[in-house]
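Problem: given the chain below (289 residues), write out its structure.
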Amino acid sequence: MPSPSIPESLAALIERCRGADGQPPFSDGTLVQLRTGEKTLLELGSPASDAAAIYSAAIYSAAIYSAAIYSMTEAEFVVDPAQRGQGIGTRLLEQLLQRCAPGVKIWAHGDHPAARTLAASHGFVPVRRLLQLRAPVTASPVSDGSTTGFRPGVDDDDWLALNARAFASHPEQGSVGQPDLTELTVEPWFDPDDFLLLRDGGALIGFCWLKIEDSIGEFYVVGVDPRRQGEGLGRRLMDAGLSHLAARGIRTAALYVESDNVPAVGLYRSLGFTDHTVDIQYARASDRG
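Solution.
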């Protein structure tokens, strides 16, 4: 069931788009920030024949001009599959541009030709490529059994501190705070036993957070203490995650990774992950950098 703070009309639109496109139109992080009030929802209503529905929606950061966060304002938007090709996306984008800071960056989930055309028509160019990779989970890999499950309310501080260090330069993951973590732990898919922690002498040095929905096991986020890089901990955590998925009867693994993260992409490909889809982040050419 959707969170009570997400309108039913939006939840229904998300499911229609997921069914048509094969992937959700908004990231988990964006929906968390909508619930916590960090982002704002913009909806365009349906034709008068169905006033309870919506045919397009955007979730965005409000126009805040602080130099510290100017470059971090983001938006995502989607149009109902049955209403595409009618100029609704253009209208929604133009309304977004009136509400967001000038340097807003916009995600397109899936490298669709229509999204490319709309972006180019308003001076936007690709600035980031987020790959979704998938791999079969055909057998249980070797795991050393040293990971333990996450304990909500007990491991929060340790995990937040390590996550901040591991993703200090990442524009989304590095900013996750306690409100975001709290929201994620009440998601229907969350299971603390799927959130694997790796410790050394009591100190948290890595984690592998799995998100299992239906028949897909997603490596939601995998992190290693930067001070322990080069020790093979990433592969060790991936092996633990794959072993966990196999034990749960999951046969398909998925993950997202920045296309320019060469070490991570190399590790995942060595484990059998191949391209599935790609998300593109756009920014206006004048705002690049």
